[in-house]
Every structure is written in structure tokens, then in C-alpha cells.
Amino acid sequence: MPPTTPYKKSGFDEIHRIAFSKTKKNDLNGWTKHEFDKSTLKSWEKGTGGLTDSDRLLLAKYYYEAKSVFEFGLGESTKIAAHINVQFYKGMDTDAAWVGSARDNAPDHFRFEFGDIGSTIEWGNPATPFLPKAPMDYTIQSLATEPEPFDIYMVDGRYRVASALASFLHALSKGMPKSQIRVFIHDYMNRPHYHKIEQWTDRVENAELLVVLKLKEGATEDQLAAAWESFVESDYS
After folding, report:
1. Which InterPro entries would you find in this protein's record (predicted)?
2. Domains of the chain from N-terminus onward
């Protein structure tokens, strides 16, 4: 067999490193965050995406403590992140106009992507449920360019179980200890079919509709990857 060629960083790897480092320039001493608590709710303009007050407060507690947040699905949670002024944020959605609206109402350092799953109907659902490009364009592409794990992954869009599994796998692949990974799923408490993910996860805490999950100690990457493939091809909800 010919000798193995040692891996050499390409020019593209280098510009990826430089570009990513520039997104981290906001990691400064004295970064200002704004609290979101019960007093904030008195004047808060509530969205129509289904967050309850207990969901808002639970999410805001974790967002305030986090340095980095990734969101599948944009909406009121994005506005909460913007109010708090999360240091490092990335979010994606299946509706290009909705992405633009979120961009217009967010801090300049927030980053957004459009997940193209074809034509969509209400709530960003795919008009054609299982297009071959959807697993890549929705659950993978926005995370694939991120070389560091996020403190919080929030899932409130399509392919929720698959997106949650992809979030756990992304964090593991970037070296985050299993015990520290936190993934949120909205509408979890009233949708029992999402609870299948508890074969590999445990609940940390929950609000009325929102849950915080962590990985079971015995969960393996192979199990999560196999489950991701199953869910992404059978459940886009």
C-alpha cells in the first residue's frame, strides 16, 4: 500500500478559520447583557409562535447564562436572544422572508441562514414532506460550518427530533463533554411522539411546553446517528 499522505490544511481551511475568528470579535470583556424576567414580561410584545410565559422565562434563564446559542426555527425565541444580547448567535429557518424579518430585528452580530426544503406551507412545513435534499439543507448545513459547539441548541422548527439529534452530534463532534450539552425542544410537552428521543436523553427541566434535554450517559454517537436517519426520513413535524 502507498504511504498515507498526512493531512494538510487547505487554503479553504485557512480562510474558514479566519472568517470564523472574525465572528468571534464580539467576545469582549465587559459584554453587556440584559435580563429577561417577570418584570420584562409586563411590557413584552408576545409572539404568536406558541411560547407561554413559563417557556419564555425558562428559555431566557438559559440564554442569559449562555455565550452561544443556535436556533432551528426563528421567532419569539430569537427576539428573546436579541433582547438579552447573546454574544454568539446563529439561527436558521425554512421561510426566506421570515429569515429576513428576523435579521431586520436582531443585533448586527447575529447570523442567519435559510434552510431550503423546497416550497413551504403554513408554519414553514414542507409542501413536499421528504425531498432528498431536506436532511442536508435543514438539519446539517447550518451546523456543518460551525467549528465550535454551542452552549444551547434550541429546536422549534421542522424535523424536530432529527434536529435535536443533529445538535447533540454536532456538540459531541466539537469536543463538548456529553454531560454539558443542552438541547431545547419547544412544543415537546404536548406532543408525545417527540418523547421517543428519551431513549437516548433525559429531561433536565421543563416549562409548560418547552423541555431541556441532556444525553444519557450510555448514549453513543452511533445510536444517535442511526436515530437521526430514521427520524429525518419519517417525521418532519
Report:
1. SAM-dependent_MTases_sf
2. 39-232 (3.40.50.150)
pLDDT band at 2 (very low <50, low <70, confident <90, very high): low
* Predicted confidence (pLDDT) per residue in 17-74, tens digit: 999 999 987 766 678 999 999 999 999 999 989 999 999 999 999 999 999 999 999 9
* Nearest-angstrom CA–CA distance, 97 and 120: 12
Helix axis angle, 76-84 relative to 53-65, nearest 10°? 40
Counted residue by residue, the chain has a size of 237
Helix (H, G, I), strand (E, B) or coil at 71: strand
146-150 contacts, C-beta under 8 A, 24 or more apart: 146/20, 146/70, 146/90, 146/170, 146/174, 147/16, 147/17, 147/20, 147/174, 148/20, 148/68, 148/174, 149/68, 149/174, 149/175, 149/176, 149/181, 150/66, 150/68, 150/69, 150/70, 150/88, 150/90
Cα end-to-end distance, the chain, whole Å: 48
Model-level pTM?
Answer: 0.93
